[in-house]
């Protein structure tokens, strides 16, 4: 037990690279790599083939996965975990969160990269929606990506590292769950606003 406790403290106090390695091992290295390589492969293929259509569908598909999971996690998965006993909830968190982090970063990065190419006519694959609205959509998209890294991912990782501690604090985990719900509602509202914005200029409204 002492060795396990020491290992938990080491993970929580280690640097960025060591934490990423630990998370990749916990998620399964193949899954962690695939979460980036699969969506980004479609993005790369779109560029290599100079296919605006493939790029558009890559953007829509990756965005649907990102938006859907980002809403489902705090709205459904979080409350479900909160209804489990402490041991079961900790076990699921230790398995789920490392996978969720890689999965969401891979798909959200693909979404904003593909959207940037689509809305930047100078790159050759855009739909030509240059202007204030497309610039606003890009700004909101990248802002949402940065927000995801800075807030919900950090909250999820805080819960994960808490479950690794020798004596997880249930009150802290409950507090993180409540924060996740609030953040998820905010993120969902911004995502819906972004969808309305993109639909509007796509239809020429």
UniProtKB/TrEMBL annotation:
Keywords of the record: Membrane, Transmembrane, Transmembrane helix
Transmembrane segments: 29-50, 56-79, 100-119, 131-151, 181-201
Designated name of the protein: Uncharacterized protein
């Amino acid at each position: 037990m002492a060795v396990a406790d020491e290992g938990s403290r080491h993970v929580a106090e280690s640097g960025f690279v060591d934490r990423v390695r630990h998370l990749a091992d916990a998620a399964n290295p193949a899954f962690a790599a695939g979460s980036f390589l699969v969506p980004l492969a479609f993005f790369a293929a779109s560029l290599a083939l100079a296919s605006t259509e493939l790029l558009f569908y890559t953007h829509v598909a990756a965005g649907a996965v990102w938006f859907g999971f980002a809403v489902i996690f705090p709205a459904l998965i979080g409350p479900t975990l909160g209804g489990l006993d402490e041991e079961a909830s900790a076990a699921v968190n230790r398995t789920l969160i490392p996978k969720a982090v890689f999965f969401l970063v891979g798909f959200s990065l693909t979404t904003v990269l593909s959207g940037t190419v689509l809305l930047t006519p100078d790159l050759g694959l855009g739909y030509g929606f240059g202007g204030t609205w497309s610039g606003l959509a890009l700004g909101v998209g990248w802002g949402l990506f940065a927000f995801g890294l800075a807030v919900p991912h950090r909250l999820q990782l805080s819960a994960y590292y808490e479950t690794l501690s020798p004596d997880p604090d249930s009150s802290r985990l409950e507090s993180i769950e409540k924060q996740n719900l609030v953040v998820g509602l905010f993120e969902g509202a911004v995502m819906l606003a972004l969808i309305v914005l993109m639909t509007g200029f796509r239809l020429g409204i």
